[in-house]
Amino acid sequence: PRSDNFEEKNGVKLPSYRGDNINGDTFDEKSRIPDPQRMIRAYCQAAATLNLLRAFATGGYAAMQRVTQWNLDFTQQSEGDRYRELANRVDEALGFMAAAGLTVDHPIMKTTEFWTSHECLLLPYEQSLTRLDSASGLYYDCSAHMLWVGERTRQLDGAHVEFLRGVANPLGIKVSDKMDPNELVKLIEILNPQNKPGRITVITR
């Protein structure tokens, strides 16, 4: 697991695989060396993915009248009949709405909004994408809309919690049966001292 510093196979001990942003999962010495270029490639891939999502979200792909064209692979499976029935009901509802004057040309029928989220794990990556909003005077981590802390990153006195305490993004806290409820309360108090609605989402792990 990534929580161990080393991985051992057949008497060979190498640094653990830390994720593609850090090193490679192939079990050899070269692959396991941390490479900062990986973080730059990850950023470029994330930016390209977001641009693709934006194009889909505003370019008509998200239009409700295309509901029967979504998830085509899924519709071939056992649940496909139920999905097609639901899609047909959406088509009927769209027909009713068009008759009532809300046509498919209306922007609300052709576009959608989306949000991104990931664990605040690699602090150098997160810090490099943090910006001051000149209008509000608040700092935002622009790597995602919502960030979360998990089992590895939610220590009350840890660097990840300290970093997230300083950004205004919505935040998530992943919890499992390993977490002391009192610790969760303390963590929420640290991350949301003003008790702002919507600031914290608790995610069951």
TrEMBL record:
UniProt similarity note: Belongs to the class-II DAHP synthase family.
Gene3D superfamilies named in the record: Aldolase class I
Chief localization: plastid
Name this polypeptide is given: Phospho-2-dehydro-3-deoxyheptonate aldolase
EC number: 2.5.1.54
Record field: compositional bias (Basic and acidic residues): 1-11
Domain of life: Eukaryota
UniProt-annotated stretches for the region Disordered: 1-31
Entry GO terms, CC: chloroplast
Catalytic activity: D-erythrose 4-phosphate + phosphoenolpyruvate + H2O = 7-phospho-2-dehydro-3-deoxy-D-arabino-heptonate + phosphate
Subcellular location: Plastid, Chloroplast
Molecular function as annotated in GO: 3-deoxy-7-phosphoheptulonate synthase activity
GO BP annotation list: amino acid biosynthetic process; aromatic amino acid family biosynthetic process; chorismate biosynthetic process
SUPFAM superfamilies per UniProt: Aldolase (SSF51569)
InterPro entries linked to this entry: Aldolase_TIM, DAHP_synth_2
Keyword terms, alphabetized: Amino-acid biosynthesis, Aromatic amino acid biosynthesis, Chloroplast, Plastid, Transferase, Transit peptide
Binding site for phosphoenolpyruvate: E151, R152, K174, R205
Protein's pathway: Metabolic intermediate biosynthesis; chorismate biosynthesis; chorismate from D-erythrose 4-phosphate and phosphoenolpyruvate: step 1/7
Native organism: Caragana jubata
